[in-house]
Amino acid sequence: MAEQAIPLSFFMEIALSDDKLNAFLQFKTNDDKLTFSLEQLEELLKTYYIVHGIDRGKLAEIVKNPKAVFASKTLIATGTPPINGQDGSILLQFDYNDGSKKPVELEDGKVDYKEVTTIHNVRKGQLLAQRIAATPGTPGKAVTGEPLPAKDGKEARFKLGKNVVADAEQTAMYSAIDGMISLTERDRINVFPIFEVNGDVDYNIGNIDFVGSVVIRGNVLTGFKIKAAGDIRITGSVESADLDAEGSIEISAGILGHNKGVIRAGKRVRSSFIQDATVVAEEVLVTQSIMHSAVRASKDVICKGTKGLIVGGIVQAGELVSARTIGNSMSTVTVIEVGVLPELRNELLQLRTQLRSVNDNVDKTDKALILLDQLAAAGQLGPDKVAMRIKLNHTKKQISEEQAAIKDRIFEIEKSLEDSERAKVEVSSTIYSGTKIVIGRYTKFIKDPISHVKFRLAEGDIALVPL
């Protein structure tokens, strides 16, 4: 058919991708005698409003040999995709890597723990951060010629803490005082003056409650309390004392809690060991051992070093628990929980206890109301019993509302327990029997020693993966 009386649309059709960035030609019938011109094919494109990104070389190939593409969808036009802008960012002008400084090893092989603590000092007027502006998006163009909108990048905003200022253009952040940088929760930048003790925290010093950061060049003895709005750095050890920092806590020589003191940090706790203590933080880093302690981290608990041992007690983390060894050959009961914020898991336990108590109260109230209803039916309900009946109905309504609220909250937490894909437990050496692994709402008891293993959720159960 040298000249087509029948329009080309009878033999072929053009389809657009959902984003209108691609146009495809596909034959509806395979007619070996079919011939047509480039102009006819271009006219067909116009009927589909294809005007941008046309591959004219491909069109010429189709005209020359249509049989070659009878059985396939052929890309004949490609639009220009939109390019989203880049989000703005905050570029810190200081190094806040707590792990960058290690104990100084002397010539005789000993370690000088006086140089373990890292203090991030800044001067008044020092540049702390710069704001990198977001970039606008670049619109694209569909094969039909219509513009395709792009998203502009989101502007970053400074999180101004204490003793920091921004310039008028909000492009740079500076320290307003001489002091110590501290990143508190939500990465807010602060500059705090430092309270420093050259010795032990004992009866000569007393408890410390300070609006900045605290440095103790000694030990914290039993029964004392330190509270800081910034960080706490201790070059010695901590006995059964209470430490509370909005920033991070670093203890060079370890924590010996005697099941009394609590160590609590808004960011990170770093220590050589933790024994018989309670530690709560966003992240817990230990180089030697965690023994018979209650450790709760909203993100990670890392226990790695020459020993890297976790044994006894309970360790809870929102995302990761990583250690060289978990448990011991004596099958000491050791509980490792990951996959939900520890405070949510503890709240769930409290709510279930509370719900049992509320259910008991509902049962008692219902039984009392049934008895009063029976008396009313028999015409034996005196004025005092009428008042009691009204009061019990009001009480039942209140208890029922409380019961419903508790059930709703339990449901919310249990749903979060199901979303534990990122949660895992890593053991680079050995995990022993006596250990209980909990990921989200799933539990696994270790019955025999296992080496070099990672535990994670897979297909609705806890899976073991070689590490």
Structural topology:
Blueprint: E1 12-16, E2 22-27, H1 38-47, H2 56-64, E3 74-78, E4 89-92, E5 104-105, E6 111-112, E7 121-122, E8 127-132, E9 140-141, E10 147-148, E11 164-166, E12 172-175, E13 179-184, E14 188-192, E15 194-197, E16 208-210, E17 213-216, E18 225-228, E19 232-234, E20 242-245, E21 249-251, E22 255-256, E23 262-265, E24 268-275, E25 278-303, E26 309-317, E27 320-326, E28 334-338, H3 342-377, H4 383-418, E29 424-431, E30 435-439, E31 442-445, E32 450-458, E33 461-466
Parallel strand pairs: 15-17, 16-18, 17-19, 18-20, 19-21, 20-23, 21-24, 22-24, 23-25, 24-25, 25-26, 25-27, 26-27, 26-28, 27-29, 28-30
Antiparallel strand pairs: 1-2, 2-3, 4-8, 5-6, 7-13, 8-12, 9-10, 11-12, 13-14, 29-32, 30-31, 32-33
Helix pairs in contact: 3-4
What form results from the Cα inertia axes?
A: extended
What is the count of distinct domains? 4
| Main sheet summary | 19 strands, mixed
Cα distance spanning the termini: 68 Å
Number of strands: 33
Task: Give start-end ranges of low-pLDDT stretches.
Answer: 111-117
Rg value: 34 Å
Helix content, binned percent = 10-25%
What would the average pLDDT be, to the nearest integer? 87
Structural class: alpha/beta
| Count of DSSP H/I helices | 4
Beta-strand percent range: 35-45%
In words, what does this structure look like?
The chain is of the alpha/beta class and 467 residues long. The protein has 4 domains: 8-78, no CATH class; 89-141 and 153-183, no CATH class; 190-333, no CATH class; 344-418. Helices cover 19% and strands 37% of the residues. It has helices at 38-47, 56-64, 342-377, 383-418; strands at residues 12-16, 22-27, 74-78, 89-92, 104-105, 111-112, 121-122, 127-132, 140-141, 147-148, 164-166, 172-175, 179-184, 188-192, 194-197, 208-210, 213-216, 225-228, 232-234, 242-245, 249-251, 255-256, 262-265, 268-275, 278-303, 309-317, 320-326, 334-338, 424-431, 435-439, 442-445, 450-458, 461-466. The strands form 6 sheets. The chain has a 19-stranded mixed sheet that branches. A 4-stranded antiparallel sheet has the order 4-8-12-11, with no helix packed on it. InterPro entries: FapA, FapA_b_solenoid, FapA_N. Residues 13-185 form the Flagellar Assembly Protein A N-terminal region domain. This is DUF342 domain-containing protein. It comes from Paenibacillus piri.
